[in-house]
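User: Could you go from structure to sequence for me? I need the amino acid at each position, not a summary. Structure tokens:
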């Protein structure tokens, strides 16, 4: 199949996959246009990948298998993490695997800009059905991607099968939602961020229910790794703790995220919360996200790991 045919098939599949509307149409993930937001978010949260890479290297060393020759980043998006892994594992060929061509283009440009083009490759593939073509690896990372797959347990199983004997799988899923504002922001009803989280959880349920082959399951990632035949299953959580006053990039990321959330969930808020949200998003309001002094970014990401028996 040519690249173009592959992309057309992918587009068809993505259209099919996300075309099912469940409730309001906000469950549609338009990955093609999400590059800038995903890239900015991954840059802001890059300390998580740096810390996780150190832990994964320690795990490999403790198992007597320090060398990583081939590393897959499955659901890589724009390749921020893939490039970090290439820096953390300087002997590895890193393959950024994703189903969205536009995001892989960003990954290639990023790798080139960082002088990593010789070691960071991209592979357009659908998860899970396209994984047969990506090859095996010593280390597989998948960050915040598998929750977009209908059958998460079977996706973990597929990734486990791509590991070389003794290989390590790391799935970053779960943790804590991001907090960035005091409970009382000085206007509106206190607790706006908590109410938005509840609405977002409902949206997440609808998004998952609309996925093809969507399976309701206990989201026990360590159990998924164990069921995939992996051993020495361990999880660790890494904190993203950027205190106030927040830098420009993190502020821009929070503003872009809240704008998206306002567009998809705003109509579900009452009038007082909608007015408070509009103030927060106003770039010229001194009490808005872009200018107020008390904005911070606090979040946590959990990484679940397991080893394929040699
Ligand atoms: C939330 S982003 C995470 C990107 C990156 N791993 C990160 O942590 O910043 C999810 C990624 O999964 C990819 N994705 C979602 N469903 C997919 C599928 N069925 N096949 C392949 N890629 C998929 C999207 O294109 C997107 O790049």
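Assistant: Here is the amino acid at each position, in order:
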């Amino acid at each position: 199949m040519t690249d173009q045919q592959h992309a057309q098939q992918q587009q068809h599949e993505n259209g099919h996959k996300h075309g099912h509307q469940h409730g309001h149409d906000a469950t549609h993930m338009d990955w093609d246009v999400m590059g800038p937001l995903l890239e900015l978010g991954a840059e802001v949260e890059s300390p998580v990948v740096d810390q996780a890479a150190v832990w994964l290297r320690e795990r490999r060393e403790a198992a007597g298998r320090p060398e990583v020759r081939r590393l897959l980043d499955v659901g890589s998006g724009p390749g921020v993490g893939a490039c970090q892994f290439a820096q953390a594992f300087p002997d590895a060929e890193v393959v950024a695997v994703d189903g969205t061509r536009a995001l892989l283009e960003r990954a290639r440009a990023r790798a080139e800009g960082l002088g990593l083009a010789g070691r960071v490759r991209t592979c357009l593939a659908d998860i899970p059905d396209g994984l047969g073509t990506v090859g095996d690896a010593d280390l597989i990372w998948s960050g915040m991607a598998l929750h977009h797959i209908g059958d998460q347990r079977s996706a973990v199983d597929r990734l486990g099968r791509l590991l070389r004997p003794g290989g390590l799988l790391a799935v970053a899923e779960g943790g804590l939602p991001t907090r960035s504002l005091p409970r009382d922001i000085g206007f509106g009803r206190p607790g706006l961020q908590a109410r938005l989280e509840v609405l977002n959880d409902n949206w997440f349920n609808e998004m998952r229910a609309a996925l093809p082959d969507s399976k309701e399951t206990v989201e026990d990632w360590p159990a998924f790794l164990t069921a995939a035949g992996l051993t020495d299953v361990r999880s660790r959580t890494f904190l993203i703790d950027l205190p106030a006053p927040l830098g420009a990039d993190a502020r821009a990321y929070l503003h872009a995220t809240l704008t998206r959330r306002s567009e998809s969930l705003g109509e579900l808020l009452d009038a007082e919360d909608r007015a408070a949200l509009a103030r927060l998003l106003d770039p010229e309001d001194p009490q808005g996200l872009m200018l107020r002094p008390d904005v911070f970014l606090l979040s946590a990401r959990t990484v679940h790991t397991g080893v394929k028996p040699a």
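One structural detail worth keeping in mind: The chain has a mean pLDDT of 92.
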